[in-house]
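ok here's 12574_t:CDS:1, seq below lol
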Amino acid sequence: TADVQSNSTVAVFGCGGVGLSVIQGAVAPKKLGATDFVNPADFEKPIQEVLIEMTDGGLDYTFECTGNTSAMRAALEACHKGWGQSIIIGVAAAGEEISTRPFQLVTGRVWKGSAFGGIKGRSELPGIVDDYLNKKLEVDLYITHKFKLEEINKAFELMHSGDW
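and the structure came out like this:
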C-alpha cells in the first residue's frame, strides 16, 4: 500500500503480529529490522512530538496497527509535512470515529487505509504463500504458543490478555 523506499523513516504503532509483519515488509530482506523501540509511556509529551524530534521533522511513513483512534491521529501527526504518509491498518471498534485538524492534511500529509496490505487476493495471494514456503517471509517468528483446536478459547484469552 505504501511502497516504502530505501532509507525511508518508518514508525509502526503497535507491534503485534500485524505490526511485526509491517516491519518485515518495510525492511525486507533484513530480519525484523526495527532500529528503535519507543514506548509512549516513557515520555511526558505526546508520542508524535517525540517522533518528530527523533526524525528531524517527521516520518516518511507511519503504520497504525492497533485500532486505537488516538494512535491513528498520532500516527498522522508524526508524519513529515509535505510528503509523509500514514497508513491505517488496525481496525477500530464499531462506531468509533477518527478526526484531525484540516491543517494536518493541507500541509501535504496523506492518510490512507489498508486491508490485507493492499494485495489482490486472487492474483497475488498465491505469490505470498510461495514467498512463505521459500522462506522469504518469516511468519514462524510470530508463533509464541501452540494450542490444540479444543483449546481455542484459552488461546484467545491469552492473546487478548497480552500476557504471551
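fwiw The chain has six helices and four strands. kinda neat tbh
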